Amino acid sequence: MTGHDAASNGRQVFRPRRVLAAAMAAAGLLWVAVLVYLLRFFDEVPLQTFLSAGFFVLFFAVSLTYYGRTLIVVDSRGITYRGMVRTRRFSFTDIRKLDVLPGPVTVYAVRGKAGLVHFTSFFRHHQQLARLLVERAGLGPTPG
User: Fold this and answer.
1) What is the per-residue pLDDT across 2-38, written as a single tens digit (0 to 9) for each?
2) Could you give the 3-state DSSP secondary structure of residue 9?
């Protein structure tokens, strides 16, 4: 289910675009292939080269995990943010503010009693999610 489709109980799920996870997986596989190639066909490759390739494998594995696992569930009582390593729950009454930082990638910061979670314009239907949070949390524009 996407954020655009609502179940009968009003539960909506918002995720990063799938193409991002696919791109991270492809890039990670490319760097794994580079490592295998270096190990099989070269005898005297500097350690820094192996470390650099290993860094990129790790970087794209972490990115894939982030884009594959992260989601925001909106239901009638609040939101649940599932990140790469933690899951946080906010009721709509706990949400104090939604900061929007425009740019090439828009960043939305949801500030609540218990802390902060964020999402970006890389999420499918991110504008709908932001409108839904403002509406259900009873947020309005702040002066100045």
Assistant:
1) 455 555 567 999 999 999 999 999 999 999 999 999 8
2) coil
